[in-house]
Amino acid sequence: MTIMPDRWIRRMAADHGMIEPFVEAQRREGTISYGLSSYGYDARVADEFKVFTNVDNAVVDPKNFSEKGFVTRRGAVCIVPPNSFVLAHTVEYFRIPRDVLVICLGKSTYARCGLIVNVTPLEPEWEGQVTIEISNTTPLPAKVYANEGICQFLFLKGEAPPEVSYADRAGKYMRQRGVALPRL
Predict the structure, then answer these.
(1) C-alpha pair distances (Å), 123 with each of 30, 87, 162
(2) Is the torsion defined by CA of 166, 167, 170, 175 positive or negative?
(3) What residues contact residue 139 under an 8 Å CB cut-off, 6+ apart?
(4) 133 catalytically annotated
(5) Residue-wise burial string across 160-180, b where 16 or more C-beta atoms lie within 10 A, e elsewhere
(6) What is the pLDDT of residue 103?
(7) 115: which strand partners?
(8) What is the mean pLDDT of the chain?
(9) Is there a contact between 104 and 117 (Cβ–Cβ < 8 Å)?
């Protein structure tokens, strides 16, 4: 697999709508950086957050997920409770080519504050807004800023397309918009 450079990412965004909206160069003045980088794309977190809480003594069960375990907040900032996490989604909508696998990594600015973004793959021919899991590993409340950088996506091109893509098997998170909750 080869990691793809900025010029390839730019061309795929312009010619094939791989990332929409697409920010041509990194923006960083007064914000946590986002946009095109040398070998990746720094995506922004949208202003919708699902904050996990234990107010109703809910149990987190991926096979029988209950919305009682979180509250939805919209705004320019989200406070992540200590030792907890939130679900959010990217501003950007992604369309992954058939011969590409994308890996999502957290940004070091947040990691240095104890906020960790789950490593997430975007499979060949998957498309949608990416649901982002942000964990606060600290004993203190932590801020996440909407419409600023939250994670970086690295684009890895395979030597050949897979026999079966995410679209071919009608993946359950295909074309998601907003925060997609766990599904079976």
Answers:
(1) 33, 20, 10
(2) positive
(3) 82, 83
(4) yes
(5) eeeeebbbeeebebeebeebb
(6) 97
(7) 136
(8) 94
(9) yes
19, containing H or E segment: strand 19-20
Q: How would you classify residue 159: left for phi > 0, otherwise alpha for psi between -120 and 50, otherwise beta?
A: alpha
Report the distance separating Cα 58 and Cα 61, nearest Å. Answer: 9
DSSP 3-state of 37: strand
Q: How far is CA 174 from the centre of its chain?
A: 14
Element (H, E) at 2: strand 2-3
- Quote the distance between the C-alpha of residue 117 and its chain's center: 8
Q: Which residues of the chain register pLDDT less than 70?
A: 55-57
Token output for 176: 């998601």
Cis amide linkage into residue 182, ω under 30° from 0: no
Query: For the chain, how many residues are written?
Result: 184
Tokens encoding 53: 């809480």
Candidates 20, 24, 133, 148; catalytic one = 133
Q: What is the pLDDT of residues 1-21, one digit of tens each?
A: 899 999 999 999 999 999 999
Q: Is the distance from CB of 41 to CB of 153 less than 8 angstroms?
A: yes
pLDDT of residue 69: 78
